[in-house]
Amino acid sequence: MIDRLPVGATIGILGGGQLGRMLSVAASRLGFECAIYEPGSAPPAGQVAARVVTAPYGDEDALRAFAATVDVITYEFENVPTAALDILEETCPIRPNRKALGISQDRLTEKEFLNGLGLQTAPFAAISTADDLTAAVKGIGVPSILKTRRFGYDGKGQVRLGSDADIGRAIEEMAGSDAVLEGFVNFSHEVSVIGARGLNGEIACFDPGENLHDDGILRTTTVPARLSGAQKADAVLLTGKILNALDYVGVLGVELFVTPGGLIVNEIAPRVHNSGHWTQNGCVIDQFEQHIRAITGWPLGDGARHANVKMENLIGADMDRVADLSADPGVALHLYGKAEAKPGRKMGHVNRITPKD
Amino acid sequence: MIDRLPVGATIGILGGGQLGRMLSVAASRLGFECAIYEPGSAPPAGQVAARVVTAPYGDEDALRAFAATVDVITYEFENVPTAALDILEETCPIRPNRKALGISQDRLTEKEFLNGLGLQTAPFAAISTADDLTAAVKGIGVPSILKTRRFGYDGKGQVRLGSDADIGRAIEEMAGSDAVLEGFVNFSHEVSVIGARGLNGEIACFDPGENLHDDGILRTTTVPARLSGAQKADAVLLTGKILNALDYVGVLGVELFVTPGGLIVNEIAPRVHNSGHWTQNGCVIDQFEQHIRAITGWPLGDGARHANVKMENLIGADMDRVADLSADPGVALHLYGKAEAKPGRKMGHVNRITPKD
């Protein structure tokens, strides 16, 4: 039997950044209240949530109290410490589940899981020592990229290897962390699928978006993506395969490299995803509401796309463009309420709408 | 010179109901924080606002403290007591301005203002006594409707007169309040225009919507409304005339009766309006964001409509339909976070989207 949370229930969100903020707004549309758990002060999500708990993830009392006052717990980022989740889960269900979180927290486990499903990934090898790396570079070749197994995001914790001479520096930069060497993939472009799976197992995917990165940070997502009908079907089917294999509940982001030999999974994110922000102005139900619907046991919403959209992130000094952007017809602004526009910091995004092809 | 409030500024909202709630969400998209002033406890807007002040409108200290911590003040309903506004305005600008508020707070003043602009209204007469009413019924005839000059909403404070025999009861129901007798207008349907005027005087109107009421409460708004091109132009032009005459800043709702003799103004509301909720799923910029843009000195947004929409209010026991509605494709739910679904209470609305004609 499926537990559908009633209107008025409270959703606990771990992390108070922009994703938590937009989840809270979406939850309000369905009549839910949100409580934010966030170690940092003045989190963006707190400006649009019923309640904020400011406490570190190591504060067991705060975690227990939080879990006792919410009906379901979700998270806006995948690096929540395991010990905190253990405590929370004693009291309250966590969705998406621990398996999805565990797999996506570790690049090595994630790649092994994906290969186990028959899905293609970049060639990879586990790296702990300089000798591991020397051997792996022989097999995988250069250019290649060394990434920490855990806690990487937005291009952080990554070193590019152009030749054997980079091996020593690369190992140094990992500073003793376990790592994965990934071979470069010769891809024409990157797309991502924002998929959702409900508590009853139903699956829905938004149209794939095409992503452009700069310096490891997403710059734009454009829908529709350049994909053949067959590629689009592949992208959606493999997303469904991942969702089912994880017995997943919620929204999942799947990044894919498009190659002549088929789609290669770059990485998965067990949460709403930056490349899904276009849904806020391209669909009746956006990825944030879809996630809330899934984790509360509601039916998934209608994610049909009604417009072409180009989403552009506003990063750091891009905030100087807000005055111009606010006067630009067809542009929807989404700012995150962050005080300081530091270089590399995601401050907001815009969705630029044009009629559907 | 126009003061454009910077991202991060705080907007004070008088009233914590659903309109304040949706204003706060819209403000968050532009990077503003909202503070809610509301006498009642646990207001719906408080669930998605940075701060809530719970105090009566007679609490001068609370009003002064509130005004001192916000950058601009707006309101979600037109019956804010004048004395409270006097105190707030010592410290902080109130938008829309006091003139608009004063006129719309009084049905008699409002009708005289509209006639003064050359706009048609229902025939009306000021009523203080039974003698006034007897005389007025002779001139205006029956059926007609007696309404309190002030503090009426959703059909409250109104008595219908079917014959001279109703005069005594009608006066009794007014309980000493000054009133207005309005003649019935023979109209085919009601439409409304949601117009906006910026701090620099620019004007933008959303497409007119067609309204259906039941027992004095709005049930549905449908866009596009049944209007000829000329009627649509008239509706927009007269809205612009009202906005300019009031030196208005913000969103204004104008209810119009469609008759063979032209458009007749039923009433104006100096705020976001229930009949404008369809804009949330029909436009890139909705009425709530448009209001926030106007009162903060930002450029008005692009209100072009990209879909046909039927908005339906969920009133009282309509909440029993939420489970079904949540599974209905093309339906966007907007619930207000109110605890009790009392009869006649607006609990939420749905926007049903179909492709644009």
From TrEMBL, chains A, B:
<protein>
    <recommendedName>
        <fullName>N5-carboxyaminoimidazole ribonucleotide synthase</fullName>
        <ecNumber>6.3.4.18</ecNumber>
    </recommendedName>
</protein>
<feature type="binding site">
    <location>
        <position position="213"/>
    </location>
    <ligand>
        <name>ATP</name>
    </ligand>
</feature>
<feature type="binding site">
    <location>
        <position position="107"/>
    </location>
    <ligand>
        <name>ATP</name>
    </ligand>
</feature>
<dbReference type="GO" id="GO:0005829">
    <property type="term" value="C:cytosol"/>
</dbReference>
<comment type="pathway">
    <text>Purine metabolism; IMP biosynthesis via de novo pathway; 5-amino-1-(5-phospho-D-ribosyl)imidazole-4-carboxylate from 5-amino-1-(5-phospho-D-ribosyl)imidazole (N5-CAIR route): step 1/2.</text>
</comment>
<comment type="subunit">
    <text>Homodimer.</text>
</comment>
<dbReference type="InterPro" id="IPR040686">
    <property type="entry name" value="PurK_C"/>
</dbReference>
<dbReference type="GO" id="GO:0034028">
    <property type="term" value="F:5-(carboxyamino)imidazole ribonucleotide synthase activity"/>
</dbReference>
<comment type="similarity">
    <text>Belongs to the PurK/PurT family.</text>
</comment>
<feature type="binding site">
    <location>
        <position position="147"/>
    </location>
    <ligand>
        <name>ATP</name>
    </ligand>
</feature>
<dbReference type="InterPro" id="IPR003135">
    <property type="entry name" value="ATP-grasp_carboxylate-amine"/>
</dbReference>
<dbReference type="InterPro" id="IPR016185">
    <property type="entry name" value="PreATP-grasp_dom_sf"/>
</dbReference>
<keyword id="KW-0067">ATP-binding</keyword>
<dbReference type="GO" id="GO:0004638">
    <property type="term" value="F:phosphoribosylaminoimidazole carboxylase activity"/>
</dbReference>
<dbReference type="InterPro" id="IPR054350">
    <property type="entry name" value="PurT/PurK_preATP-grasp"/>
</dbReference>
<dbReference type="InterPro" id="IPR013815">
    <property type="entry name" value="ATP_grasp_subdomain_1"/>
</dbReference>
<feature type="binding site">
    <location>
        <begin position="182"/>
        <end position="185"/>
    </location>
    <ligand>
        <name>ATP</name>
    </ligand>
</feature>
<dbReference type="InterPro" id="IPR011054">
    <property type="entry name" value="Rudment_hybrid_motif"/>
</dbReference>
<feature type="binding site">
    <location>
        <position position="190"/>
    </location>
    <ligand>
        <name>ATP</name>
    </ligand>
</feature>
<keyword id="KW-0658">Purine biosynthesis</keyword>
<dbReference type="Pfam" id="PF22660">
    <property type="entry name" value="RS_preATP-grasp-like"/>
</dbReference>
<feature type="domain" description="ATP-grasp">
    <location>
        <begin position="111"/>
        <end position="296"/>
    </location>
</feature>
<comment type="function">
    <text>Catalyzes the ATP-dependent conversion of 5-aminoimidazole ribonucleotide (AIR) and HCO(3)(-) to N5-carboxyaminoimidazole ribonucleotide (N5-CAIR).</text>
</comment>
<dbReference type="InterPro" id="IPR005875">
    <property type="entry name" value="PurK"/>
</dbReference>
<dbReference type="GO" id="GO:0046872">
    <property type="term" value="F:metal ion binding"/>
</dbReference>
<keyword id="KW-0436">Ligase</keyword>
<comment type="function">
    <text>Catalyzes the ATP-dependent conversion of 5-aminoimidazole ribonucleotide (AIR) and HCO(3)- to N5-carboxyaminoimidazole ribonucleotide (N5-CAIR).</text>
</comment>
<feature type="binding site">
    <location>
        <begin position="266"/>
        <end position="267"/>
    </location>
    <ligand>
        <name>ATP</name>
    </ligand>
</feature>
<dbReference type="GO" id="GO:0005524">
    <property type="term" value="F:ATP binding"/>
</dbReference>
<feature type="binding site">
    <location>
        <begin position="152"/>
        <end position="158"/>
    </location>
    <ligand>
        <name>ATP</name>
    </ligand>
</feature>
<dbReference type="Pfam" id="PF02222">
    <property type="entry name" value="ATP-grasp"/>
</dbReference>
<keyword id="KW-0547">Nucleotide-binding</keyword>
<dbReference type="Pfam" id="PF17769">
    <property type="entry name" value="PurK_C"/>
</dbReference>
<dbReference type="InterPro" id="IPR011761">
    <property type="entry name" value="ATP-grasp"/>
</dbReference>
<dbReference type="GO" id="GO:0006189">
    <property type="term" value="P:'de novo' IMP biosynthetic process"/>
</dbReference>
